[in-house]
Structures are given as structure tokens and as C-alpha cells.
Amino acid sequence: MARVELIGVTKAFGDVEVIPTLDLDIPDKQFVVLVGPSGCGKTTTLRMVAGLEEASGGTIKIGDREVTNLRPGLRNCAMVFQSYALYPHMNVSENIAYGMKVRGVAKDEIDAKVKEASRILGLDPFLQRRPKHLSGGQRQRVAIGRAIVRNPDVFLFDEPLSNLDAKLRIEMRAEIKNLHQRPQHRRLRHPRPGGGDDLGRPGGGDEQGRDRTGGRAHRALREPRQHLRCRLYRRAQHEFPARHGRGQRRRAGLTIADGTTLPIPQDREGRYGAYKDRPVVFGIRPEHMEGGDAGPAVISLTPSVIEPLGPHTLLLGEIDGARVTPQVDAHFPAAPGEACRITLNMTQMHLFDSDTEQAI
């Protein structure tokens, strides 16, 4: 693999600025995830790295080479598209081998690489099948196989899981992570949460098109895998990736829009002292709320939608226009239009400055 750098990269389509100035530094051998809402520039960023989209400004480097103006074939990037992009008239083996065949690779080498990719991805039983006779997960494996046989400097995955059902999505996340951990295939770059070593947001990360992860779009993490999403998820540095409702702190409590006062953890009082009697933005994650009134921080919620998800249920409701979505036990007695009590784990709360939108 190779280091990838975007230095002051911008992208505009006519008068519409899609990606403002973006600085992104991805070290060698890192597995990085770009996250953000639809239309924020994730795919455009990947396409600029691959050379499929021309940057409006700035510099793109792969390894020691500046590739800003190089055509795609000279960048040595392998991109896996959301739509698989397989050749329908070719079988699995031919799809995987096609790129090498076009480049004039020797047949023995092609056969060896196809065999190895097929073994890694569990495609041996399907090598003679055409794409129409494969499941969605199998097609995605073929697309990945076509990429890994190229031995590229950079792997670019554009939402490779979005067309799969829940079961296949889990399986493919495991496949991608397994590939990432294999020394012979080293590291992948992946644009969607699903096992990455790092998290970043492209330049269009929020409504104004700015990175909102807390500074540089790339931030190296040294935490175990189960905590890798903390910086963006549990310890968000900005309101946008953690938004829920608004409130106002009074003394040792936080008064939310409906007048309910929630106790602030004692160890947080010093941090929030400067915001006494000032409006702030309050956020808490669904899994840090539970049904019932077992704790000191309790709100009343009338859910408009109940969404059963197997081991747990989501209650979708609002408090004075602010969306609230507790994740409660699957057996919690709740019904649309009926008020229920929800306990908040305030040790997991977030506060944001309502003017700057930065975490307090």
C-alpha cells in the first residue's frame, strides 16, 4: 500500500462547490473510513483519488508521486464500485482476470492470481458462473477479487455493502476485514463504517461542507477496535455527527426544551461552569437511553413510531421539535401515541456550544 495525501483539494461542478478545501493524510497501511450524509462528497473524493474525477484545485499524492493530473491507469488504484460493475457476458474467472489480460500479463500468472483470489474470497464453486447466477454478496466478492489481483497501491471501496441485505452485509464486512489483516494483501481503504482503523469526513461533512471530526479529516487512533468509533461517535468533537436536542444548563442541571431538568454528572460541572444560564446543544446516543424511570435523569417521550429490531426496539419521537430515539429492550411496553418514561445515562452525555457548534 502507499500513503495518500490530499492537500487543499477542492471540487466544484460549475458554480456549485461540492468539496471545499480538503486536507486528508492517510498513512501507509491504514484502513480508513470516510463518513458523512448522502451528497457530502464521499464518492467524489474517492473518484478524485482514482483519477475518475478531476480535482478543481489542490494536490493529490500517492506514495512519493504527485498524481493530480495523471490519468487513472497510471495511478495504480483499484476501485470497487457500489454497483459491482461486472461484465455480464463473462464468468467469475473471466471477470477477475480481465484487467490483467488487457495489460498483457502472462497466462500462468493470471491463473495463479485468480486461483489465490478465489480461494481467499470463497469463490471456487462459482468460477464458471456468470454474474446473473450469483447472489449480491457473491457479486461483491467478485468485484473485490478483480481489485485485489491488481496488487494496487491503494484500494478504494465505494459503499460496497449498501446493496446487500443485513446478513450479507455482516459477512462482507468480515471478508473485507479479513483481507485487510492478510499480510500479502496488506491494507484497504474503505469509505463506509464497517471495521476501519480510522474515521474521517470529506470536506462536505456538514451542511456547510466542512470537516467536523475535530480538525484534520484524518486522525490516527491508537485505541482497540471496539473503541475506534469513540472519537466520532461517543466523544464527538462537533455537534453535526452527534446532534439530538437543545437545552439550557442551570446550576448542576441541564434544563431541556420541555422544562425537564436533568442532573449533570459531578465530574463535569467544572467543564460546563462557563456555560451557566447559556443555551447549549445537548446530545445523547440511543443506546445510552433505556425504558423506565430507574435513574435520576428521566424524560417523558411520546413515540410516533415503534421500530422493532430483534434484540432491541427504537422509539422514534420528538421533544419540542428535537428528535429523540431511545434504544430500549425489545420487551419494553411502548405504543405509538402513548407517553412513556425514558432514563438517560448522563455519564454519556454530550454538550456543544450553540454558536460555534464545537464540543464543550
Describe the structure.
The protein has a 5-stranded antiparallel sheet, with no helix packed on it. Strands 2-1-4-5 form a 4-stranded antiparallel sheet, with helices on one face. Strands 15, 16, 17 and 18 form a 4-stranded antiparallel sheet that branches. With 360 residues, the chain is an alpha+beta fold. It is built from 7 helices and 20 strands. The two termini are 38 Å apart. The radius of gyration is 24 Å and the shape is globular. 20% of the residues lie in helices and 26% in strands. It folds into 2 domains: 4-234, Rossmann fold (3-Layer(aba) Sandwich); 243-353, Nucleic acid-binding proteins (OB fold (Dihydrolipoamide Acetyltransferase, E2P), Beta Barrel). Residues 184-195 and 203-235 have low confidence and may be disordered. Helix 2 (92-102) crosses helix 3 (107-121).
Strand content: 25-35%
Count of discrete structural domains: 2
CATH architecture of the largest domain: 3-Layer(aba) Sandwich
Tell me, what's the shape?
globular
What's the rounded overall pLDDT mean?
A: 80
Q: What is Rg?
A: 24 Å
**Can you give the helix content as a percent range?**
10-25%
* CATH fold-type name of the largest domain: Rossmann fold
The number of distinct β-strands equals 20
Q: Strand order of the main beta sheet, please?
A: 11-10-9-12-20
**Count of helices?**
7
The CATH homologous superfamily name of the largest domain equals P-loop containing nucleotide triphosphate hydrolases
Separation, N- and C-terminal Cα atoms: 38 Å
N-to-C SSE string, H for helix and E for strand? EEEHEEEHHHEHEHEEEHEEEEEEEEE
CATH class category name of the largest domain: Alpha Beta
Name the poorly predicted regions.
Answer: 184-195, 203-235
Give a quick account of the main beta sheet: strands, pairing sense, barrel closure.
5 strands, antiparallel
